[in-house]
Design brief:
Elements lengths: L14 E6 L5 E5 L5 E4 L2
Antiparallel strand pairs: 1-2, 2-3
Length: 41
């Protein structure tokens, strides 16, 4: 089951994984608005 992620900027649920940060957190990127952020995963 895929985790349900929502973009905090535009509210879209079309969010994909986008690599890792230097500190080991997962990066996510919204396909609609282009915002990138890291979350605890």
């Amino acid at each position: 089951m895929k985790p349900y992620l929502i973009c905090p900027t535009c509210g879209s649920d079309d969010v994909m994984k986008n690599g890792m940060t230097r500190r080991g957190k997962q990066n996510h990127k919204c396909r609609d608005c282009g915002r990138q952020e890291s979350r605890k995963s």
